[in-house]
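[Target chain]
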Amino acid sequence: MFFPIILVAPARAENVGAAARAMKTMGFTQLRIVNSQVHREPAAHWTAHGASEILDNAETFTTLQDALADIDFSVATTARSRAKFRYYATPTEVLEQLREKREWMSRFALVFGCEESGLSNADLECVDLLTGIPMAVDYPSLNLGQAVMVFCYQLSALNLEPRATAQQESPQQLQVLRQRISQLLENIEVNGDQKLVSWIEQRLGFAQGRDTAMLHRLVQDIEKKLAR
């Protein structure tokens, strides 16, 4: 399964090394780094403890949007306070979502923000689903390496389970549906209702294959009606 871990603007080499070690332990090997070079520092390799090849083979990108260009479905981790007015999936719900989506998608990504500031609002807009780690207290929070370990452990079951060979749907149908709905909202002149638009965009991240196909049919029927 194609499933890179994406670290956006990591600030500390030790944390990136710890993340690489966690990835290898749980069976993830693809690392992408956005707007940072700290994974090249010796401290990252010291902390990686046998996972240096992940650091050596890491792909680098200027923006998160570039790093997600070839991804069918992306999940971003963020603090609940930054997810205000957004739908927020638990790690268990993320696992169930990915189990269903890999029946019709093949390229996924898990995104982590900078240790100090997390992901920006612009970065959050780039992903399909938000998640986070429920904690008993707000502080102390988990560091980057610990957070990567928690999610890699939670999602490692996907590496052990057989994947259905038949893919009845196009992996790009969710992205196309987003574009069609966005255009539809503009055509009926409700795209200025940011709360409505945001709600629709976020709920689409939870849509299963059958839901997505039915929504395509609904949008098509509405488009035909409007064309008359």
Summary: The longest strand covers residues 73-77.
